[in-house]
Amino acid sequence: MTRSKRETERKYEAPSADDTSWLPDLTRVHGIVSVVEKGLEELDAVYYDTDDLRMVGASATLRRRTGGADAGWHLKLPTSGDSREEVQAPLSDKIPDTLRDLTLSRTRGGELRPVVRIRSSRSTRRLIDSEGAVLAELSLDSVRAESLLATTTRASWTEMEVELAKDADPLLLDAVDKALREKGIDRADSSSRLARALEETGTGAPRLPDRRAEAVVPGSAADEVLRYVDEQRRTLVNVDPAVRRGLPDSVHRMRVTCRRLRSILRSYRAVLDREVTDPIRAELKWLGGELGVERDQEVLVDRLSTRIGASPRELILGPVDARLQVWNVAGTSKARQRTLDALLSSRYLALLTSLAELTEQPPLCRKASRKPEKVMVKAILKEHARLAGRVAHGLELAPGTERDTALHQARKAAKKTRYATEPARASLGKPARRLAKRVKAVQRMLGEHQDSVVARDTLRNLALAAHAAGEPGFTWGLLYGQEQAVAEGCERGLPATWADASKPKLLKALVH
User: Fold this and answer.
1) Helices vs strands, H then E, count in the chain
2) Per-residue confidence at 215, pLDDT binned at 50, 70, 90?
3) Between 243 and which of 250, 328, 357, 452 could a Cys-Cys bridge form, CB atoms 3.0 to 4.6 Å apart?
């Protein structure tokens, strides 16, 4: 069993743990009326990582800690700014399976082993407001670190951290920070205690040649494309634990990241060799497909629930809500298991390894060193031309299944065009952002159309099941008609929306 909490804190260099005369009077900080000493704790933590330190390299830490109020296993994952999420599990001799699974996107299956032991003598001070509530805790630690790798090396230092209490105003950290800086207390250079321990003890991963820096020309098309690809790869790694835990919107974020990576590797084949990237694209398509089952279920049940909830109750005939719930429970369970199976597979871990190798040792093509303005404009215009052909084909067909399929293909082309602009925005500026905005409007309209197509198919199946059970089918037919009207409205509005996204001056602005 695990539990999690969000912690927001800042770390500082501390002159001494014994003589604290250097500490400012924090009751002068707005909102703090008293500082209460909590006492001394002895903490003993063993940190785990792979031999090449993949966890710390991905800004995450896993430790087994004894002592203190929260003894147990702690997995710390980055979120944003000064915040991190800490997932905790009860104390045990072995790494809990639940936490091990949450590290997989970072370790890629590499064995976790003890790398550093850190013992701390901690004195804590609570920062209290006028109502007696704790605003934050200031911890002063005398730290002793010991390497557990090939050579036993020790180091010691003193550090301080200020951790914001739950629901406290984040601006308090800025106020405390200002008071500390006025006393000459600077922020710590290391991103985490483990990172500092590794540095202080001389422990580190094998230093390999930076082949990316050696091969990529700064400011070139390859530089911008690879920066974007690496950003998306990191997003995939970071969102993985949230997907495993079933957190809201996490499956959607991972699926969109897969699409972005697939699209960029396709659009910029002139930069990255397709003999390397095409197999990666195929695996990204597989992963997106596995995630899609759960995500599509989420979208569909939300859509149908909203429509049912907005309908007058006198038009809800039969056990409509109950039937939708039964359908959703059955579908969600299967979809959820499919997602988890994919993330636990060796195929998924191999994909993560391939993506890491792609950014570390990029397979550059001849045009990779060229200026991004030339290479990227050509790629964007090519995707836009493909989108134009798909839209024209869809609009010339009569309403029906064939047109639905064609418009769905146009929607995919719109996404590819928009994604192609994303790594180019630094070099192309407003013209790329403006085109992306117009194309996104087309994508949204086509997305609403496709969602209606999928919803109608589901509504028909629900109506058939209701009929077989002797239930009224009126409400399902009513909802079907509403979805039909939505689709027809999208089809009527598409020509104008597309005209806005295909103006010649919009495309010419990219070139100039």
Assistant:
1) 16, 8
2) confident
3) 250
